[in-house]
Sequence to fold (371 residues):
Amino acid sequence: MGAGTEPDGSSRSDEEWERFLRESVAGTADAPKEPSARAREVARRLREQPDRAPEAWRSHTPARPKRRKGWYAAGLVVSLVLLVLVALAPGRVVDLFTGADSGSAPEAPETARPSQAPPVDAAQRPTREEPFRGSPAAGWASGAAGITVPKARAVGWMGAPEVERALAASRDFLVASSLDPAVLRGERPEKAIALINPHQKDVRDLLDTAFRTPSEKNDPLLLFSRFQPSRTRLVGDVVKTRGRLTYQEGERGALRVTADVTFVYPVTRAGEGDGGDGDGEILRTIVRRELVLSWDDPAKVITEPGTFSVTSYKYAMTNGGCGPAQGYLTPPFGAERRAAGSGTTTDPYDRTAPVGQGGSTGDECGSATRS
Fold:
């Protein structure tokens, strides 16, 4: 018969067995006369360690769970970050929780001419931290990412791989002519010029004189976006873009690439806000360009490898300046801005019609419904 087992085979509970052992040690009158070997062993240990409570037989005390201090530390860090944001940019924290600035969820790439203009957002002034605030451009992609390039297929004298390279180079021209930081600061756009067929006489004449003696006929702005650094500086290093490339077969089997892209440049007067006070007036100069580029078959047209001929160029601008050509975009600040814009009223974000149809072109000084 095993210890802790009744004659009829049933088992004693742990509590009964512990009471039995203690009564045996204490010499209780009704204790069994001949305890088992296990009982005698436990009784001996109890005598040797009278202050220590016996461990219950078949008992288990689970380990205490450790406190998870990581959650408290993470919560503390988040709280500190929010306090810093509130101190440095309270407006942005409010916008984060109220959604004030952000009807600006990223828009899908433009793959075809849109059927309607972007919705009008609540009027909000741009800031140094958010120069596209209150503008449809807040949801546009930045730089080259906003220029959609279609999938290449064989056209004319070019196979699909050659068309793909030509499309990439066409986008490179837009980047080098209207997004390169040095060019935007007024430097000569050497990388962009290198992509133009050097044997195209009319464009070569324009390039030879435009940067030296700009005029209405030979104006660098016809192809390039430039600001005069002594007068204007960009706010931040992001230019928002939206547009696309399309292509088809042109004359003599050439690849004819059409680019239609809007560029949004946040700018302020040079010298204002440089000390971090953020008080300088911020405008958005908006330039929409429509270019047709011809990648000619060298067997039929005199050209150089890796270059294209410029077939046509149009542009429309808002907050880009009026008056005689200066070779630079000249945003109107202060009193100049209030006096500018007496011509056609246009929406610079409306891309539903080609440049020059339903809106102003580069040689007009109209007023914009929004910027």
Summary: The first helix runs from residue 14 to 26. The two ends are 97 Å apart (CA to CA). Residues 1-5, 53-60, 88-103 have pLDDT under 50 and may be disordered.
